[in-house]
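ARCHIVE CARD
Drawer: 12
Card no.: 0347
Subject: one protein chain, sequence and derived structure
Cross-reference: see card 0346
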Amino acid sequence: MKGATRLSSCRSSLISPSSHPAFRQKPTLLPLDRRRHISAYGYTQAKALVYPNHGTPSDTLTLHTHSISPPHSNLLTLRTLAAPLNPADINQIQGSYPTAPPFTQNLGTPQPSAVPGNEACFEVLSAGSGCKNVGKGDWVIPRRTGLGTWRTHVQVEEDKVVKVDKDGLTPEQVATVSVNPVTAYRMLKDFADLEEGDWFIQNGANSGVGRAAVQLGAMWGLKSICIVRRREGAEGDALRREMLGLGATVVISDQEVLERDFAKRVQDWTKGEEKSPKLALNCVGGDNAMAMAKTLAEGGTMVSYGAMGKLPLRVGASMLIFKDLRFLGFWVSRWGDRMPEEKKKTIDELLGMIRKGKLKDVPMVDVPWSWDTGKGELLKAVQGTLEGFRKGKGIFKFGDT
């Protein structure tokens, strides 16, 4: 009886959850897309920007939360460390690019959707038992375009990625090596027989490709005429000094290119027609590109890798008949898919240059992405990729995801 009385007394002293004010308060819940649940069964919680149809990024992109099961066989679970925002990524969302990531429901979206983004640096979180060349802690990059990199985590087969030596490198450097620097490298190497002291000319010179071309050319003893969009006053002077510091020989504005005496000025810089540029790199098009073409040496080549001006090339017959000029295109995605081993060699060589400080990073604008980052913050950065005169290349930098 004593025991029963003591037990009864203890029970009566317990606080009833339903009666105490602290327990009657409703818990504050985060929105569903900002909650993170850690599974006891080894599942990885992930978020991805996805789009169910082509259109303007701000209209069609959503932030989707999903789970990734533990890897098996030849599968890898990857955590994204950095992923750049390239104009081509935006074009894919808009539906104006020749290739696009697949639309699937693999992530559990209400309707088939795609994940944008083509470049990234990933860290391997875990590997299936069948993986032979990549293990936990390694850094990898996509082997081909279309993987979909604007996400916190992804699971892929081992052969879909390429391992890189991360020593002495940052995630941002690794994430941005496979498009712009590779494009510049291959155009300088593959389209003209350039020797030390030769000249090349390029527009869009302060772009990612242009900056890489300037630096590579300087390393290889080439001289360059670099055309940039006109900027007023101190901003224009600062850009000119920056480009000269990277190794440019001459820096001029896109307005100067359209002046009547431009071709003569080029001959003055190169010390005669026989030393005229053998190669022109074009990412603008229109009259700007044709002004460059008129400065090329006989038998010279113009390589187009972009069309930011959205204007056609109006090639005069005399350029073809009397100067024997060649007008070619280069699409690094197609080249890399056709020549994966050569692409890997090029990337390894470029990363070696970056590691030694010979190839400087492009200016970047960090876009932090942690688990609590909302859709609006991410879409604002994506939309900024479409604006002119940006301070640098936008890049998602992933924190606590």
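Annotation on reverse: Residues 1-35 have pLDDT under 50 and may be disordered. The first strand starts at residue 44 and ends at 50.
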